[in-house]
Write a sequence for this structure.
């Protein structure tokens, strides 16, 4: 580098010489922006504007797609969980603990944490590193001091596991990413490379490994790994009998139901999920499943 010297006048009338770079500044390379801040019904949220899989010209899905087109994400499911948390507080008192497995950018986490301010806490777990950064940021900017974020995959055994790494600068429903390739792995809007050379390591955790002193509610949305995640939660489920909301889209539905029932749970269909409550849970008496009459 080539430096020149320039004279700078000071109040002391003495010339002070400072180095000045004569080499012209290199032009900045253009950067595509993916993550943005959005004012949503859930609060200010960091969201990837490319988080969408368009199935038609105006129809698509993805957390980002919903938030940027409707200002909210799965409002009915969020409302259901808030009511369930209220029931747990009503019957079991303050100190409620909720775990969000596959938390994505934290819509549920933020809503639960704000709702339980002063009487409950949230543990949010997300496997995708870039999505985890948004999750942690959203917890911070929404001042959710009763929420904690962990970068990990929830599975049956603690340790590490391999997972694919999508391109976050290209459109895709990132929340639909499957950590393990299946025979009918979902196309999320971009091709995902599951070859060993393209996989990255991620910490694997079980819910049992946290040794939680209390557990009231668990949401499991882990894209086909729900039974694995439940297998790593046997001890805390047996001990605490939390309410479970488990996605059933990418697993054997009958197998999942039977597994939940093996814990002595009553199981109900709730949209894309199974809602399961232990048969001794006092909240069970408040659950009413409405079946729409056939035309």
């Amino acid at each position: 580098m080539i430096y020149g010297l320039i004279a700078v006048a000071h109040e002391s009338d003495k010339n002070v010489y400072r180095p000045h770079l004569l080499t012209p500044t290199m032009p900045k390379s253009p950067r595509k922006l993916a993550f943005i801040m959005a004012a949503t019904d859930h609060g200010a949220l960091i969201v990837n504007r490319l988080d969408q899989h368009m199935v038609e010209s105006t129809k698509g899905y993805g957390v980002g797609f919903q938030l940027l087109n409707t200002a909210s994400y799965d409002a009915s499911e969020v409302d259901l969980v808030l009511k369930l948390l209220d029931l747990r507080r009503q019957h079991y008192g303050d100190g409620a603990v909720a775990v969000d497995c596959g938390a994505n950018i934290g819509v549920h986490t933020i809503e639960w944490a704000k709702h339980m301010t002063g009487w409950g806490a949230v543990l949010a777990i997300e496997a995708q590193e870039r999505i985890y950064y948004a999750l942690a940021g959203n917890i911070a900017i929404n001042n959710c001091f009763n929420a904690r974020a962990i970068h990990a995959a929830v599975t049956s055994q603690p340790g590490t596991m391999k997972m694919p790494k999508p391109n976050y600068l290209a459109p895709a429903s990132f929340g639909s990413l499957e950590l393990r390739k299946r025979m009918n792995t979902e196309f999320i809007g971009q091709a995902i490379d599951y070859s060993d050379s393209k996989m990255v390591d991620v910490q694997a955790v079980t819910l049992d490994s946290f040794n939680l002193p209390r557990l009231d509610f668990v949401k499991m949305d882990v894209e086909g790994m729900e039974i694995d995640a439940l297998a790593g939660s046997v001890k805390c489920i047996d001990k605490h009998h939390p309410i479970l909301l488990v996605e059933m889209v990418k697993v054997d539905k009958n197998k999942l139901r039977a597994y939940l029932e093996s814990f002595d749970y009553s199981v109900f269909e709730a949209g894309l999920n199974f809602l399961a409550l232990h048969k001794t849970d006092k909240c069970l008496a408040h659950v009413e499943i409405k079946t729409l009459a056939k035309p």
Observations:
- The longest helix spans residues 75-92.
- Confidence is low (pLDDT under 50) at residues 1-5.
